[in-house]
Amino acid sequence: MTMIGLEIHCQLTNLNSKLFCSCKANYREFKINENICPVCMGLPGSLPRLNQEAVKKATMIAMALNCTIPEKIAFFRKNYFYPDSPKNFQITQLNIYGDTSVGGTGSVMIGDKKIRITRIQLEEDPGRLIYDGSSSKNQITLVDYNRAGTPLVEIVTEPDFETPHEVRDFLNILSNILTNLGVADPSLEGAMRADANISIEGGKKVEIKNIGSFHDLEKAVHFEIIRQDSLHSRNIEIIQETRHWDDRRKITVSSRSKEEDLDYRYFLEGDIPWVKIDPEIQKKLKTEMPESISSKKARYISKYNIPAQVADVLSSDKYYSDLFEDAYTESNAKEVANIITTELMGLVDTREKREVSKFTSVHLRDLADAIQSGKVSRNSSKNALHEILKSGKDLSTVISELDLGNVSDESELSRIIAQIISEEPQAVEQSKSNSQTINYLVGKVMQKTKGKADPVLTLDILKKQIGI
Ligand SMILES: [Zn+2]
Question: How far apart are CA 327 and CA 355, in angstroms?
């Protein structure tokens, strides 16, 4: 049996400052080494001060992942010497005095399978190493401390995964939950990093460290299982070691094990007092948390009669569910959901496309209403959608500029229908006894109007002219 466990590091977003000082949390907006101060640089005499908002957001994550919430939380120093850590220690959390990290045991369901969460901890991110130099002789390493001290949440799972597929499903569900909470942005470069522990039957545990994206994590796990299976089948011992994911070659490579064999000499961070998380705070946080994905899904099904599968995809992605919430009315909810899941999802499926898209919830509402009222056909609505995404013009402008509107002028339609009736005497005769034949005639009208005839009106006039 294959056993896979994950440790996921996730940056908290929408915070004003770093975890222990007033430097900005959005370090990406600064020039190199501009977003630093004595506290995050660990200069003598500086004192950390805990960002309460970060504690709040991390606790929300713990609640959303069904974790136990401790009565009080504590911070520890993890000592290590490495250029990305200016203080030579990282302030993190640990459960050596009972449960004192932001989240205790919890769980996430992927389909029918329960993935157990071991704990969730709040800690600071180290700085960033930049490898520079044009030739191998001239290789230099630079360090940018702008990121040092920004808030990070680590989510540790039990080794409950058995396949790379389960890992991927879990990561998708997790990133949807975090995005829905508004506390993280997994689509942002470097916002999520992970370690994976993998062992197969009879083998030792192998750890793959610091994988930069969810996509690579799945590939790394897949590769590692094949590598270990291959060793096992040749009776070669699988040794306990740390490996790295080589993004370029798409393989895992062994790290020198001595380098990883560190003793962190953890001890309590005496500069930060323990923080009480009393039931009142928890209750208040619950009321501040956005509606959960599962609750949204249930509401879409029961209130708007949206099919379960459509409700599932719609509620999972915050971008689409926000659009839906802003656009729907009592009468057009199903049509709005339909446009999002059948058309829009294929057109704005990446962060970049969403950023350049000029499409708004007003466009969405107008489009759904126009389809429902017969102003535009479902087919033409696709062209309108493409144009709106590009230009951001309002729907009525797009319809008239591209001539997408349905032919709903009664005299115009009557004239076309009269012509078809004279061309198709046999079908007209048949339609009097066989109700299916009328569809053939509607099809002829659509052909002539390039699909733009108002279908309801067409049928009406046809019946009237034939006398059925
Ligand atoms: Zn600072």
Answer: 19
Q: Where exactly are the structural domains of the chain?
A: 3-283, 291-401, 410-466
Cβ atoms of 313 and 109 within 8 Å: the answer is: no
- Angle, helix 318-327 to helix 361-373, in steps of 10 degrees: 60
Return the CATH architecture of domain 410-466: Orthogonal Bundle (1.10)
CA of 22 to the centre of ligand 1 (A): 6
310-360 pLDDT, tens digit each: 999 999 999 999 999 999 988 899 999 999 999 999 888 888 888 888 899
Positive or negative torsion for Cα 56, 61, 64, 69: negative
Write the CB contacts of 278 (distance below 8 Å, at least 6 apart in sequence). Answer: 71
Q: How many angstroms separate the alpha carbon of residue 45 from the centre of ligand 1?
A: 14
Query: For the segment 230-269, what is each residue's pLDDT rounded down to a tens digit?
Result: 999 999 999 888 999 988 899 999 986 545 556 888 999 9
Separation of alpha carbons 302 and 187, rounded Å = 31
Q: Look at residue 5 and give its three-state secondary structure.
A: strand
In this predicted structure, the answer to whether residue 292 has a pLDDT above a threshold of 90 is: yes
Phi and psi for 267 in degrees, rounded to 5? -150, 160
Amino acid at 448: K
Distance 207 CA to ligand 1 centre (A): 32
What gap in Å lies between CA 178 and CA 242, rounded to an integer? 28
Q: Which two tokens stand for residue 356?
A: 């350049």
> Phi and psi at residue 53, in whole multiples of 5°?
-65, -35
What is the CA(32)–ligand 1 centre distance, in A?
A: 14
Q: 41 C-alpha vs ligand 1 centroid, how far in Å?
A: 7
Span from the CA of 144 to the centroid of ligand 1 (angstroms): 13
Ligand 1 centroid vs 248 CA: distance in angstroms?
34
Give the model confidence (pLDDT) of 85-94 as tens digits. 999 999 999 9
C-alpha of residue 34 to centroid of ligand 1, in Å? 10
Question: What would the two tokens of residue 106 be?
Answer: 């919890």
pTM of the model: 0.84
User: Distance, CA 46 to ligand 1 centroid (Å)?
Assistant: 10
pLDDT of residue 155: 98
